[in-house]
Amino acid sequence: MKKVFLVVGLMIISMILMALSQTIQMDFEEIELDFDNVRLKTLEFYDKADIEVNHNGTDVTVSKKGNVLSIASDNYSKVSVYLPVSKKYIMKVDDAVCKFDSETLIIETDDEVVTFADESLTVVEDGEKIVHISKEGIIVDDDGEHVEITNKGIVVEGDENTNLTGFWGQLLGGFIRFVAGSSISWVGKSPARIVKYMVNDQNDNNSIGININWDEDSEDGDIAKKEISKSFEPDKKATLNVFNINGSVDIESWDGKTVEIETRMKSTRGEEEFEKVEIEIKKEKDWHINTIHHKKRPKVSVSYDIKVPRGMKLDNIITSNGSIDIEDCRGNMSLRSSNGRIIVENVDGKLDAFTSNGSIDIENVTGKVNVTTSNGSISIDEVDHLKNVITSNADIEVEIDNIDNDILLSTSNASINLYLNPKLDADIFATTSNASIDLSGIELNVSRMSKNTLEGTLGKGGDKITASTSNADVNIYKLK
Fold it and tell me: Does 93 have pLDDT greater than 60?
């Protein structure tokens, strides 16, 4: 835990100090990388792009050969590079891969993935989020300890629990949150700032190459790609499980009798990385599609497009650093991802969906539904048996047409928009802080109402609907 705080602290201090000597500017057309008094050695940009270079050094050379633009400097000089804002870029520095555009920066190493996006910093280690810093506060999970630093104070949960939530705790927590959040926000508004620092740290290296347009539709030859097609024919009562690492999983039903699997693999480290990964199809009691790593943390992303026969049930669908998309399927499903969104549409069965740093969108599910994420919005429509809807730092929008159990909607620092069938019989409890609760077109028998709290009944009353947030409004509407 001390190591995590030290690393985060050093990153924040370093970014503030380096900001005094170097700048990056954004407008609607370009990203400006302004290197002040540095030795670039050789900085190369691959693929065609309109790049402008200005400098004040007599020894700085700028040359174009084919699709490569090279900038070289043996002595300290000031160099400004203007990059198209519409492009995406990737570069390799030591054992790290850096991907960036005008909005997002991702640094990948063998152990960690660091993401600057939406004015926030997230650190993921071995598929588990250990640090999240934003304007709302700091959350650290490491070595069995959980730390939250917000305006409400400092909370430490672990072998020894500590709660500093009084006046001094709120003052100290608010100050730490402000300094860290403001620094991260400053970087997050233009994440490519950090790219300059990574380049500057490589002054003694021979060269750094930056590839342009590395997204999935790019023809960038530096990204190795491999596609694998497999299929099998299950029995009529078969159930499917999928376990993946570092990639998306998309599943839909079709009229065929076979399970069709299209696998896409990508690597920035070359085709030899594919030898470290195996796609396994295994029949036990149920069918399993597994991504197996034969070496520790190969730098490979694996994405699945799967078609299953109508009526085949899905069970556990698990991935990391990728999205899950389920459409027109059956089964009591458990969906789990990290750093990826979950989309579910037209499912017959129960649903438990969990992710982090990603949104969840659910539409038309017949069974009981529980959804949990963090730092991602949740949208739910046409669900027969809703139970728990939990997130943080992101909005919740839910339509409730019928109710047969208590329902919990919970977020923080974000609004809740709740649409209720006026014919429901339910107890309603809504609470927030530093914001308001609004009713629009819905008639409730209100027993208690203040700016921050509402209690009442809809119809005859019954199962309880709880909507809880902080620093944002709760809006309750009539479902049309």
Answer: yes
pLDDT of residue 204: 46
| Chain centre to alpha carbon of residue 112 | 14
Query: E strands within 421-473?
Result: 426-431, 437-440, 445-449, 453-458, 463-468
263/230 Cα distance (integer angstroms)? 8
Tell me the CA end-to-end span of the chain in Å, nearest whole number. Answer: 50
- Per-residue model confidence as pLDDT tens digits over 301-334: 899 999 999 999 999 999 988 899 999 999 999 9
Task: List, in sequence order, every residue forming a beta bridge with 385; answer none if it has no partner.
Answer: 368
Model confidence pLDDT, tens digit, residues 372-417: 998 789 999 999 999 999 998 889 999 999 999 999 999 988 899 9
Domain range annotation of the chain: 2-212, 236-251+315-478
Report d(CA 315, CA 332) in Å as an integer.
6
Amino acid at 156: V
Report the alpha-carbon angle 215-190-35, nearest 5: 100
pLDDT per residue over 13-29, tens digit each? 444 434 433 333 333 34
The DSSP letter of residue 394 is S
Burial class (CB in 10 A: 0-12, 13-18, 19+), 353: buried
Segments of 313-449 assigned E as strands: 313-318, 324-330, 333-336, 342-348, 351-354, 360-372, 378-390, 396-400, 407-410, 416-420, 426-431, 437-440, 445-449
Largest CA distance in the chain: 83
Beta bridge partners of 230: 261
